[in-house]
Specification:
Blueprint (H helix, E strand, L loop, with lengths): L3 E4 L2 E4 L2 E2 H8 L3 E5 H14 L5 E6 L6 H10 L2 E4 L2 H9 L8 E2 L6 H9 L4 E4 L2 H14 L3 E8 L21 E2 H13 L3 E7 L10 H21 L3 E3 L17 H6 L9 H12 L5 E4 L3 H4 L3 E12 L4 E5 L8 H5 L5 E3 L8 E7 L8 E9 L6 E4 L20 E6 L2 E6 L4 H5 L10
Parallel strand pairs: 4-20, 5-6, 5-13, 6-7, 7-8, 8-9, 9-10, 9-11, 11-12, 12-13, 15-17
Antiparallel strand pairs: 1-2, 2-3, 4-14, 14-15, 14-19, 16-19, 17-18, 20-21
Bound molecules: ligand LLP.
Length: 434
């Protein structure tokens, strides 16, 4: 569910007119709904309320400082993966002590920064990493809290590039080697074993793989509690969102109208299915959802440059490109694209919706049916709140897009559009070329 909807003929985010935002701040611009983020957070919390729960928002999905602050105000901790992300948490005025630090290659500097700022736990992916964390903690004279990431070898039925819980992925330690890894950790005197973690993949649209993974590791988790007194079990993130019917899936009524066997994964189903499996463990449960929290809370606004009518093919050329939103080019992912001003008297157009970048991969949608829109008109690429801005680049020397957050009828720029000057500020001509 989300707060993007037509009011009359004009697409709004909450009570803010998207055309007004584009007029003020230009395009391409990401627009986020604060209410949708809060709703998502509360829905997740409410549906797992039978558990001692800590939501650690996976900030890799969207790490704008305003988004971090918003989730921190709601009570979230963070799942972070770099020193940079940790510094964002601090810069947003949020605390690190309910946050976890994941990733297969944490540097000594990053480990030090996390320890100095009181990280709740490191999610450790290998034995050499245990040794490195132990070493840095020793230098600082502290004990580093850790959890080991178990790879449960479960098929998440998602895109190959975002599945993580199979034995052939680079992530975690296989279940059969995990006991030995914990024994090794227990022998390292600067480590404190605090929990256990797993994460099987992203954009999961069925609850089955989550259930399979929890069932597979639950016995081992109970053994860890008995042996080491662990206090938490993180079951990772990965809950999928609706991409295909993105706009329609805003109101509750759309969800109610879906046949039970066709309904996309909801926090209601996720909570009702997993809670009974997790309660008997008697542990604090961490959730690391990213996409679910922000994905449907954001759109990318773009303006039409040209409608190019070709022989048997139309191209709608917009001013956003693969550098702004790389998901379609990278994962062949689907984003619904809708006109910001809806006009039922217009004909439908079938076109490839493309950006101006000089490669064929710069295509948001192939043979997409959309209301005819012309030069200067606005379109919105839906479900772009997660893995949108954070994966953007400056390819073709296109500055990073702007970001705006809406709250009711109010909205504010939360990231300025990048200028040529800031883009090139670090570059220089070497003396030998002068
Ligand atoms: N925890 C861990 C350890 C993860 O690796 C991830 C995501 C998450 C939590 C959050 O997963 P989520 O709830 O957002 O599904 N760029 C890709 C997605 C990559 C996800 C990587 N790991 C995309 O645009 O689809």
């Amino acid at each position: 569910m989300h707060h993007f909807h037509y009011s009359g003929q004009d697409l709004h985010c909450e009570s803010a007119d998207l055309a007004a935002i584009a007029k003020l701040y230009g395009t391409p611009t990401y627009v986020y709904s604060a209410a949708t983020m809060a709703d998502n957070y509360h829905r997740l919390q409410r549906n797992l309320s039978g558990l001692d729960l800590q939501i650690c928002y996976a900030m890799k999905a969207n790490s704008n400082l305003a988004v971090i602050r918003h989730f921190a105000n709601l009570g979230a901790g963070f799942d972070l993966v770099s020193g940079g992300e940790l510094r964002r948490v601090l810069a947003a005025g949020a605390k690190v002590n309910t946050s976890v630090f994941a990733g297969v290659g944490k540097t000594e500097g990053e480990i030090k920064l996390a320890l100095e700022n009181g990280i709740y736990a490191f999610h450790v992916e290998s034995e050499p990493e245990l040794a490195r964390i132990n070493h840095v903690a020793g230098q600082l004279g502290v004990k580093a809290p850790i959890a080991i990431r178990i790879n449960p070898d479960v098929d998440a039925h998602t895109h190959a590039k975002i599945t993580t819980g199979k034995s052939d992925n680079k992530f975690g330690i296989p279940l059969k080697h995990a006991a030995a890894a914990y024994e090794a950790a227990a022998k390292l005197k600067n480590l404190r074993i605090r929990g256990v973690q797993m994460h099987i993949g992203s954009q999961l649209t069925e609850v089955g793989p989550f259930v399979e993974a929890v069932k597979k590791v639950a016995g081992f988790v109970a053994e860890l509690k008995a042996a080491y007194g662990i206090e938490y079990f993180s079951i990772g993130g990965g809950m999928g969102i609706v991409y295909r019917d993105a706009l329609a899936s805003g109101p509750q009524s759309w969800w109610d109208a879906q046949p039970a066997d066709k309904r996309p994964l909801t926090p209601e189903l996720y909570g009702a299915t997993l809670t009974p499996l997790l309660v008997p463990l008697g542990l604090k449960i961490l959730l690391e959802h990213g996409r679910f929290m922000v994905g449907n809370a954001g759109v990318l606004l773009a303006r039409v440059e040209h409608l190019k009518r070709g022989a048997g093919k139309n191209f709608l050329i917009v001013d956003a490109a693969m550098n702004d939103l790389v998901r379609p080019a990278m994962y062949e992912s689907f984003h619904e694209i809708v006109p910001v001003h809806r006009d039922s008297s217009r004909r439908a157009l079938v076109a490839d919706i493309v950006g101006p970048i000089c490669e064929s991969g710069d295509c948001f949608a192939k043979d997409r049916s959309i209301q005819e829109v012309g030069e200067g008109e606005l379109v919105a690429l839906m479900s772009a709140g997660a893995y949108g801005y954070v994966m953007a680049s400056r390819y073709n020397t296109r500055g990073m897009p702007a970001e705006v957050m809406v709250n009711g009828s109010a909205f504010e720029l939360v990231n300025v559009r990048e200028t040529f000057e800031s883009m090139t500020a670090g570059e220089k001509i070497p003396a030998f070329l002068k």
